[in-house]
Amino acid sequence: MDKLLSTTSSSSAAAADSGGVLPDCFVFPADRRPPASSTAASLPVIDLSGPRDAVRRAVLDAGKDLGFFQVVNHGVAEETTREMSAACEEFFRMPAEDKAAFYSESEENPNRLFSSTTYESGDRRYWRDCLRLAAAFPVADHTKFHWPDKPHRLREVAEKFFVATRGLGIELLRLLCEGMGLRPDYFERDLTAGDVIINVNHYPPCPDPSLTLGLPPHCDRNLITLLLQGDVFGLQVSYNGDWINVDPVPNAFVVNFGHLLEIATNGVLKSIEHRAMTNAAVARTSVATFLMPPMDCLVGPAEELVGDGNLARYRTVTFREFMRIYKTVGARRESVEKAFRI
């Protein structure tokens, strides 16, 4: 299979070449294939336009229990999300030659198009293509120069989306701070002073979704993630040994906490494993925004959450060291937890 030009995609191109049969490189052993979910539980849907005290409690409770929730009336204009979704879907519909310049397998490249996944999977590949965009805040013109110039207005639309989703992430972090007794801007300094990263995940129709995954089970490496998942189901969240199907909610963002937030809150908030399923009928495109610290930032339990018999559960490390270990042990929650617990 030619990995270059993950168009609509290298995955679907391979399937087409093989007569609609899932290529061997995407077929996982039986014990790693996606079992059917039998759990009827669902994520909380929080209306951010409600009374602040009630919203604060709902966000904190969801973070302690599930580590995942959905938000509506979140302040990100519907026009912004609609235009971003449309531009990203148009990008993946473009001919291969129009996307070739952006393809890179180098993880050192902050803005790139790549196929499969960055998670360790041996010789197995996941049924996903990804366009990754990164920017410091505020977004500078020279940064946008490294983003795709096609389709028309992608750069303009992406900048608006960056600003709006970062703002939503900061507001959610403020609500968490208020609920935990931290100063409201605790997370607005070093811990969110790094790049904002956007992953546009594209999952083409899959010949046999029972044999593969779009993304493996993993916990995120950052503070907080906001996902615009669109109207096609695909996200599942780990819950009590099973998987919750995250049903799309119109004009909602799915919010989850990364392992950095679990460390910073000394385990009060949880970083939960999640994965992406595929389907045989339609393509699915989702857009995830990650708030990141700079590499030299120290990450450890907040002093306000340690003491009076409440011992620190995690050691303090630089984000660079965190990422080195995260990549070494893999993104599974149990491995990450074991690596940083005291």
UniProtKB/TrEMBL annotation:
The keyword Metal-binding applies. It holds the Pfam family DIOX_N. GO terms for molecular function: metal ion binding; oxidoreductase activity. InterPro entries: DIOX_N, IPNS-like_FE2OG_OXY, IPNS-like_sf, Oxoglu/Fe-dep_dioxygenase_dom, Plant_2OG-oxidoreductases. Keywords: Iron, Metal-binding, Oxidoreductase. Residues 192-293 form the Fe2OG dioxygenase domain. PANTHER family: OXOGLUTARATE/IRON-DEPENDENT DIOXYGENASE (PTHR47991). Belongs to the iron/ascorbate-dependent oxidoreductase family. This is Fe2OG dioxygenase domain-containing protein. It comes from Leersia perrieri. The lineage of its organism: Eukaryota, Viridiplantae, Streptophyta, Embryophyta, Tracheophyta.
